[in-house]
Amino acid sequence: MMADMATLAMIQNMLHPVVTTDTAIKPEIRHMQTTDVIAITGAAGFIGSYLAGLLNTAGYEQLILVDDFSPPDKQKNLEGKKYLQLIHRDEFVSWADAHPGTIKSMFHLGARTDTTEMDYAIHKALNLDYSKQVWEICARQRIPLVYASSAATYGNGEQGYTDRHDIVTQLQPLNPYGRSKNEFDIWALGQPVSPPFWAGVKFFNVYGPNEYHKGRMASVVFHAYRQIKEKGSVKLFRSHNPDYKDGEQIRDFIYVKDVCEICYWLMVHQPANGLYNVGTGQARTFNDLVAAIFRTLNKPVQIEYIDTPADIRDKYQYFTEADMSKLLAAGYDKTITSLEDGVSDYVSNYLEKDLYY
């Protein structure tokens, strides 16, 4: 389990934009209205279901929720959500073609996110080819699009963690998942015809409610909380890098609430088209993360350090941190939740109560 946690935590990178042709001739923004029909792919998943709840809270109830709804462990993510229709992901493209002009905004968050899945064909089909179909629908029907990229595109961070467009072809993702996400970013940047607005959001280490179904791919917060409740202690990987002490490996952990608020803000304000990092901009250690959980539970900090498995040791990331300057320059001015406040809210109001958002 810990190996999978580390694999998930060890994929974050860099990007930033050069103005594209369609950005220069971008039409006037059509502001979102609560009567709009809004589509969300991956709507039964972690971030997609949280976004649906956030939109409901903001008054948007005409939602088209797209996903594979068959897994029973995803059903609770949809409880209490207000929406117009559920559409299986395999039927969405034909449905959208048959209902032109219906969708006014599109959040494409659905993806195969298992970073331990080494069969690239699976990631290509769901993360690259399907995303191209969604893009083309939005381009034809003039639908603003926010889609999920990933900090996994950054690999070991050789190019840094800045969301510049001129470096995407130089990025070296560590796994097929990150590769599929980066290849779509490259493809999107090269398209002569695009949606009237588009943003590829590069999520860093997201944690928070509605991830319960993710199993081994759930956040470190989720797994560490379970370990503390069951055993009173947490296992973290020992450092094999002399520049870092045990547990002092650093990640950019961001609360799902902030992730969805940024996605919503991008759709509402529609700044320049392109790629945007979605992190806190302030990386923290795993020791900090775990200490915040113990503190919330009023328990003494008990950490055991174990060797990083040899098969992933050479790919293990010791530092990731989102460069958030582009989003801030675009006008995003909401305060991003601190690690301590995010962990406290997640643990106290969701994990301890077994609640969903």
Structure overview:
This protein is an alpha/beta fold and 357 residues long. It has one domain (2-351): Rossmann fold, CATH 3.40.50. The chain contains twelve helices and 13 strands. Strand 1 (37-41), helix 3 (46-57) and strand 2 (63-67) form a beta-alpha-beta unit. The protein is globular, with a radius of gyration of 19 Å.
Task: Summarize the entry for a quick read.
This protein is 36% helix and 15% strand. The protein has helices at 2-9, 21-24, 46-57, 89-98, 120-141, 176-189, 220-231, 256-269, 286-296, 310-313, 325-329, 339-351, and strands at residues 37-41, 63-67, 85-88, 103-108, 145-148, 198-203, 205-207, 234-237, 250-251, 253-255, 274-278, 284-285, 303-306. Helix 5 (120-141) runs parallel beside helix 6 and helix 7 (220-231) packs across helix 9.
> Would you list the SSEs in sequence order as H and E?
HHEHEEHEHEHEEHEEEHEEHEHHH
State the helicity in percent bands. Answer: 25-40%
Strands of the biggest beta sheet: in what spatial order?
3-2-1-4-5-6-11
User: Count of DSSP E strands?
Assistant: 13
Q: CA-to-CA gap between the ends?
A: 25 Å
Question: What's the CATH class label?
Answer: Alpha Beta
Annotated CATH homologous superfamily: NAD(P)-binding Rossmann-like Domain
Task: Please give the radius of gyration in angstroms.
Answer: 19 Å
What about the largest sheet?
A: 7 strands, parallel
What proportion of the residues form beta strands (DSSP E)? Answer: 5-15%
**Count of distinct structural domains:** 1
Describe the global form.
globular
Instruction: List unreliable stretches of 5+ residues.
Output: 1-25
- Residue-averaged pLDDT, rounded? 90
CATH architecture: 3-Layer(aba) Sandwich
**By helix and strand content, what is the structural category?**
alpha/beta
Q: Could you tell me the CATH topology label.
A: Rossmann fold
